[in-house]
Write a structure and sequence with these properties.
mainly alpha
């Protein structure tokens, strides 16, 4: 199946760049009276960006402590199941961080409802072609330990 060939092929950082670009294009083409006030846009960008970066860095740090790979295209290369630190709150802190950055960017660009469409597509694509394949692989490697982890910690938030 053609769609299956997309699994684990596009690095999430490429998806973020595509979603951010799409958001920018939409924001520059949509005329509307409804926009987030200018005084809120920069704080939204800073808050979304800072929270996103902190979430991503916390995830990378925990992977480093566990001496396992952070490469999202090769989940089979992981050497341990990381459930400490931020991974006790979300199974995907790096992806949550990327989404927070995209949401901050959407708000900064005016926050027209259409500008939140690319971040929504980012989540949908990531769930189908990145997270589900990762979880299948981790379930094969770690078995019941991973199943227990999934029952306790949510995929996103």
């Amino acid at each position: 199946m053609v769609l299956c060939s997309l699994e684990l092929k596009v690095p999430p950082v490429v998806l973020v760049a595509a979603a951010a670009s799409g958001t920018y294009c939409i924001a520059n083409r949509v005329e509307s009276e409804w926009k987030i006030p200018r005084g809120v846009r920069v704080p939204a960008l800073i808050l979304g960006g800072a929270a996103g970066l902190l979430s991503m860095l916390a995830g990378v740090r925990e992977f480093g402590r566990a001496s396992t790979t952070v490469n999202p295209t090769t989940p089979g290369a992981c050497s341990s199941l990381v459930s400490s630190g931020i991974y006790g709150y979300t199974r995907n802190p790096m992806y949550v961080g990327m989404l927070l950055c995209l949401l901050g960017w959407s708000a900064f660009l005016g926050g027209h409802p259409y500008t939140f469409f690319p971040p929504a597509l980012f989540v949908a694509y990531l769930n189908k072609f990145q997270i589900l394949p990762e979880e299948r692989t981790l379930a094969k490697i770690f078995g019941a330990e991973f199943d227990t982890y999934c029952s306790v910690v949510r995929r996103w938030l």
